[in-house]
Structures are given as C-alpha cells and as structure tokens.
Amino acid sequence: MNQITTGKSEFNNFKVRFMGALKTNGGVILAFIIVFVIASIVSSKFLTFNNQMIILRTISTTALCAFAMTFVVLTSGIDLSVGSFMSLAGCLTTILISWYAVPSFLAILVSIGVGLAFGAANGLIITKMNMPPFIATLATMNIMRGISYTITGGKPVSVTADISDETRTMLEVYTEGVRDADAMLGRLTAYFAERSEPVVLVFYGDHLPYLGDNQKGYAELGSEVAIAENDRTDILCSYKTPYVIWTNAAAADALDWEAAARQLVLPEDGTVSAAFLGSVLLDLTGRGGESPWFDFLSSVRRLVPVVQKKIYILTDGELIANRDLLERTDETAAALKAAIRKWRCWSYYKLKYAEVG
Fold first, then answer.
1. Which of 161-165, 214-218, 256-260, 344-348 has the lowest mean pLDDT?
2. Which of 4, 11, 23, 251 to pair with 269, CA 20 to 30 A apart?
3. Alpha-carbon 250 to chain mean position
4. 122 near 115, Cβ under 8 Å?
5. Dist. CA 170–CA 174, nearest whole Å
6. Max Cα separation, the chain?
7. Helices within the chain (DSSP H only)
8. DSSP one-letter string for 291-327
C-alpha cells in the first residue's frame, strides 16, 4: 500500500510540475505552433525534408549554446559570454587553418582549450572572488569580443588559396555558370512539379570542370586531381560527380521507388557510371525490357557499376585496372571481359549505323 501511495504521490507531483511548466511556457509553445502552422500553409515547401534540415543546420550553433546555458540557468546563474566565445572560437579556428595551415582537428582542439580557459576564469572569478555572475561574464564577454576584433582586424575571416589570376577567372566564370544553371533548373523543376502527369528528371555530370591545361587550377588548389592517376589515393577522383533523380508528386505516388531502388543492385553508396543512368532510370520506372540496348547495359551494370578509363569497380567494391583484368582467368574476370567486349562492339555499330537499340 505504501508503494502504491508513493507512486501516486510521485505522479501527482510530476503532474503538478508539468502543468506549472506548461502554464509558465504555454505562450511560447502556442506561438511556436501558430508560426509553424502558418508557415506550413503559406509555403508548400516548408514541411519538406530538405527545408527542415536547413532549419536544423541554421539553428545548430545557437542550440548548442542553449543546451549548455540550460544548466547555468537552472542553477540560478547567468553567462553573458557564450555568444562571444562562439565568435572567438570560429575566428580562431578559421585563422589557424587558413593562415597558418594548422590541421583542422588540432585547430578545433586549440579553440576548445581557449574556451575551457575562459570558462575556468569565469568560474574562479565568481566562486573565489564572490563577484556576481552578471558582472564577471559581462567582463569576459567584452574581453573575448576585443580579442576577436584584434586578431581579425575587424574584417571577415576568409579561407583563401594562393592562385593565379587565370585560375581565379576560371573559378569565377564556373561559379557564375553554376548559379545560372541552378536558377534555370529550379524553374524547370518548379514547372514540372505542378504537372499532373508523372515526370522524372535526371541531373548528372561525367567529370569535374576544366580548370586549365594540365589541371593547372586543381594543382594551385592543392587537389589530387592534378596528380598523375597512378599516384592518386583515389584514382577516379576527377570523375566523381553527384547525380540526382528528381520526380514530381505524381511520379512519386505512381511508383514504389524504395522497392525499385533495392532491385537495382547498386553499391551501398549508390556509385554508378553516367553511361548506366539511362538503364537505371528505365529499371526504376518499371520499363525494363523495352530496349535491348538498355537491357544489356543493365546487365553490365549489375556486374560492374563503374567503368571509367579502363578502370572497373565491381558491385562488391573491388577495383580492377584493365591491365590486371587481362591477366586474370577467373570466372568473374571472364564474364567482365566478355561484357566489355560486347559493349564496345555494340557501341561501334550503333554509332556507325546511327541506330538506337
């Protein structure tokens, strides 16, 4: 009986505390719900996954500060220096990395160490000198602001590389092209999003952009793209570009995309050569069997999803160079050689007679 009574008492105490907290913060919660509902009604994109992720990323730094400040406030304390420390840590980390080439991990540790030092100073001033938290943290807030202003010269800290005017011009032209292409593709997807018939679009690239003869731009940027292929840690790094398969609502509702994607037999990271995207699209949309050519490409893709410059990556992730493939006599190698030979012959006759198989 005592245990039951104690349990009820604890539940009643929790209920009282919960209702008290709800009464105290009810206005904030209600305002949040109202804003959330209005935003959902005004914009059809507000509740999308991408938008929610953008919101979470935007508030992430503020949330980290708020989590820590919760414990300070719960103990009837206050810390005005949190925001200034976040600014100092960001400036210090960026300067160490961009100006002094300090490794990222070490630069972050240094910034954390500086934060610990200021935090310890705050604690000692408050506990040992009996100074009010408001005054102590107000002082350290201004000190950290002054340090941030001094080390940055009052200017934004940018990560720069020592590049030539030619490379800078190429990068500026390329980024302008990316901006214009993004705007154009945005209008394209917005148009098809309103269509009632199913629409599927595929956006992809085959290789990284041209940045000067002999990969000059990549060399100045310190990218291994400029290194000879045999010396790279990632031999195909210059051909790794993202691809996006976009659908409107009608297409998303008409097909079971998750089940279709599982049947593609792609590597876990979804890597596939651009030459196979046509067969991937037909398989995803349930149109396999309509074209002998694309059916053949689909069969090749299931054996070797990546074929690039005589480099082959099998579905299990094994990388095989053409010179090594020619020396192998195992069953997998024989199947791969036969598929590549047939692919080349078929491609030749398709080009010669301009036929679409």
1. 161-165
2. 251
3. 27
4. no
5. 6
6. 92
7. 2-42, 49-74, 82-98, 104-128, 133-152, 165-193, 216-220, 249-254, 257-262, 277-284, 292-303, 322-327, 331-353
8. -HHHHHHHHHHHH-SEEETTEEE-TTS-EEEHHHHHH
- Span 161-180, pLDDT tens digits: 677 888 888 888 888 988 89
pLDDT digits 0-9 by tens, 194-224? 999 999 999 988 888 888 888 888 888 888 8
Q: What span, in angstroms and rounded, lies between the C-alpha atoms of 251 and 66?
A: 42
Buried (b) or exposed (e) across 242-273, using 16+ Cβ within 10 A? eeebbbbeebeeebeeeeeeeebebeeeeebb
Q: Which residue has the tokens 């990271």?
A: 269
Q: Residue 92 has which token pair?
A: 């210090």
Q: Which residue has the tokens 């036969």?
A: 338
The predicted model scores a pTM of 0.56
**Nearest by Cα to 92 from 82, 104, 80:** 104
pLDDT of residue 2: 45
The SS3 of residue 242 is coil
Q: How far apart are CA 125 and CA 127, in angstroms?
A: 6
Q: Partners of 201 in the beta sheet?
A: 246
For 179, the token pair is: 């901006």
